[in-house]
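pls design
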């Protein structure tokens, strides 16, 4: 016999999801860029990892600025090391904070175009859910700047939950914005 919604309410069963739609999360992936929207997504991911006793993997993708001259592209070698070191330092700091609540959490550092690298990681680690921040850009800003979250939502093999930041702006503690050698 199937319980109707009134029967479930009287029996004390959760009305949020029918018995056949129980949510089971074993592995969560959360891209981090050290900005406000990313912080919101990370907070939600930590809460879900605690609630479901799920593995939590943080991933940060950094890009190396390229210069183009007459069809030739290259990134200066003296930029690579400080950018990678800064990205690693911020990711390690974030991971230490997360491990206070989720001791088994881990992190991946990737170099390249953010959307493409995130999709590659999703294919490799097979998370049950990707939780990522979105800046909430609209109109011309989104058209010109693109949307990593939008591309990941459209092309991901895993379900994606997007979390919009309060203002969608990078805060003063948002991580490296300029690298000096």
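designed seq:
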């Amino acid at each position: 016999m199937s319980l109707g919604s009134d029967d479930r309410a009287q029996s004390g069963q959760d009305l949020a999801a029918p018995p056949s739609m129980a949510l089971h999360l074993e592995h969560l992936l959360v891209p981090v860029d050290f900005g406000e929207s990313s912080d919101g997504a990370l907070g939600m991911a930590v809460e879900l990892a605690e609630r479901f006793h799920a593995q939590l993997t943080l991933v940060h993708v950094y890009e190396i600025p390229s210069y183009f001259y007459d069809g030739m592209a290259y990134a200066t070698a003296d930029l690579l090391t400080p950018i990678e070191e800064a990205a690693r330092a911020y990711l390690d700091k974030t991971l230490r904070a997360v491990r206070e609540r989720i001791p088994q959490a881990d992190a991946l550092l990737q170099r390249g175009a953010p959307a493409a690298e995130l999709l590659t990681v999703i294919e490799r680690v097979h998370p049950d859910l990707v939780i990522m921040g979105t800046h909430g850009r609209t109109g011309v800003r989104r058209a010109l700047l693109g949307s990593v979250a939008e591309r990941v939502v459209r092309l991901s093999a895993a379900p994606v939950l997007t979390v919009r930041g309060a203002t969608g702006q990078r805060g003063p503690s948002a991580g490296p914005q300029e690298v000096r050698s």
